[in-house]
Give the backbone structure.
Amino acid sequence: MHSFGYRANALLTFSITVLALICAMASFSDNFNSPSPSSHVQVLNINWFQKSTQGNDEVSMTFNISANLQSLFTWNTKQVFVFLAAEYETPKNFLNQVQSDHCPCHS
Ligand SMILES: *[C@@H]1O[C@H](CO)[C@@H](O)[C@H](O)[C@H]1NC(C)=O
């Protein structure tokens, strides 16, 4: 007949199958979600600029950043990385990119 081992095995298999199905449904449902984050960045002040002979110039700036990231947070979101990058063009280089060193990203 059905021993304890058989019943435990059946129960475990069923539970894991249901769990996998729910995970797949949660993952699939994210396809219908189209997040629309918005942000506004304003340079308030350029505090100092330091030219370096090694090539890594440093600048300290004060920004006023407002962002609405609410639409990014769904049941499928584990973590959101936010950073600030400035892109500009010079006669020598088509694309220059500067990324922020520290990003105070509090929710
Ligand atoms: C920063 O921007 C917000 C709105 O975008 C504004 O209400 C606020 O006064 C600004 N703060 C400073 C210090 O400029």
About this structure: Residues 4-29 form the longest helix (26 residues). The longest strand covers residues 38-50. Strands lie at 38-50, 58-68, 85-88, 96-99.
